[in-house]
Write a structure and sequence with these properties.
Helix content is about 20%, strand content about 30%. The chain is of the alpha+beta class and about 140 residues long. Helix 1 packs across helix 2 and helix 1 packs parallel to helix 3.
Length: about 140
């Protein structure tokens, strides 16, 4: 049974998304992230991709070297970090991290937002990804 990690802080979506990839709890991933100098309170966590890349790299998980423009749900790789809910604050881009994956060939999104009725999403028309980072687990 798939049990998505829910973020425990308003800005903890990057930490929760990485926890979903690595099979960790939010607290386990937060402890690892904090040890690396990465904190949910830092707005850079959801305005810069280097933080999620560093957390994944430290666990020996490979990511695509650049962000890839979103074209369609069917063209996504089997595992990808997606940026949704894009907005700007003081001219800087921000987004919400979610995890796209295919389970037994079926696409779904693990969205860590605590206010959702279900953190497993298939309402693809409601999400507006800008780009994604492919995640490759060996």
């Amino acid at each position: 049974m798939l049990k998505p990690v829910v973020q425990e802080e308003p800005s903890g979506c990057g930490i929760a998304s990485v926890a979903n990839i690595l099979g960790k709890t939010y607290q386990e991933m937060k402890t690892r992230a904090n040890a690396m100098g990465i904190y949910a309170e830092d707005k850079s966590l959801w305005s810069d991709t280097q933080y999620v890349r560093r957390m994944l790299s430290s666990a020996r998980v490979e990511t695509s070297p650049t962000e890839v423009a979103f074209e369609s749900w069917s063209k996504l790789p089997d595992l990808a970090l997606l940026s949704i809910k894009h907005h700007q604050e003081d001219g800087k881009n921000f987004w919400h991290w979610v995890l796209f994956k295919r389970v037994n060939g079926q696409p779904l999104v693990l969205d860590s937002a605590s206010y959702l009725p279900s953190n497993i999403r298939t309402d693809f028309d409601e999400m507006q990804p800008e780009w994604f980072i492919e995640v490759k687990i060996a």
